[in-house]
Amino acid sequence: MLSKGLKTIALAGLMAGTGAGAASAFSTTEIQALYGDGFHFGKNGAGETARTTITLEHFTAFEYGDVFFFVDLNQDFDGPASGRDTDQYGEIYGHLSAKTVGLDFSDSGLIRDVGLDVGINQGTDFLVGLYGARVDFNVPGFNVLTFGLYAYDNLEDPFDRNLDTTYQATVVWNAPFEIGGQKFSTQGFIDFIGDQGSGVDDQIVFQPQLRWDIGHAMGGKENRLNLGLEYAYFENKFGVSGVDDNVLQVFLAWKLH
Fold first, then answer.
1. In 10 A of CB 198, how many CB atoms?
2. pTM higher than 0.85 for the full model?
């Protein structure tokens, strides 16, 4: 699955990188600290566990595409003493814009850009390759609104199942707003992943965030320090029917540059 990576720091990166359309690169790096309770398939197996996550995310946009990666470091708290307390998960993606073949879209039109994507999602005993395309839209009120459609190829499965290649459809958004002089934004993503054969159900991953720019509220630079809530919903997690994450997390995000 595409995790919050492509769906958080890339939001700001897409806005600045594709909007500028300049030859020089735009890059940004962010560190997030999150806490929530109710995650499955961690230290407590199919049971639930509370979890702290430290996330490092980086995004770079060039004239003809962009590159994104993130790494999650997880600390679980509930489960047997013999269970694994810590774990890691990461993703990396490359996007090649249609500008490389001379296709260019007007900033005033509905479509901002189209292009090809390739990605790898990797965790402990888990490896997925994704290959497809992404469309970036110009919609009033949204800094970012994208739709991606990918082949979802599970190369290594934590349950040693023989999985079919399926599809993943992804929507990503970012919409800033102000209330009483305070700066906020809502952003996130939703993934729809098809079934992968008998006994491996289709999946939905939904992670919206509500961010408050506390750096700006305290008189500092905008969009450097954000406090917020993230809702993490994972239906039929890893294709296991009826096992759903349904977690509200609190987080602090610090953008390094």
1. 8
2. yes
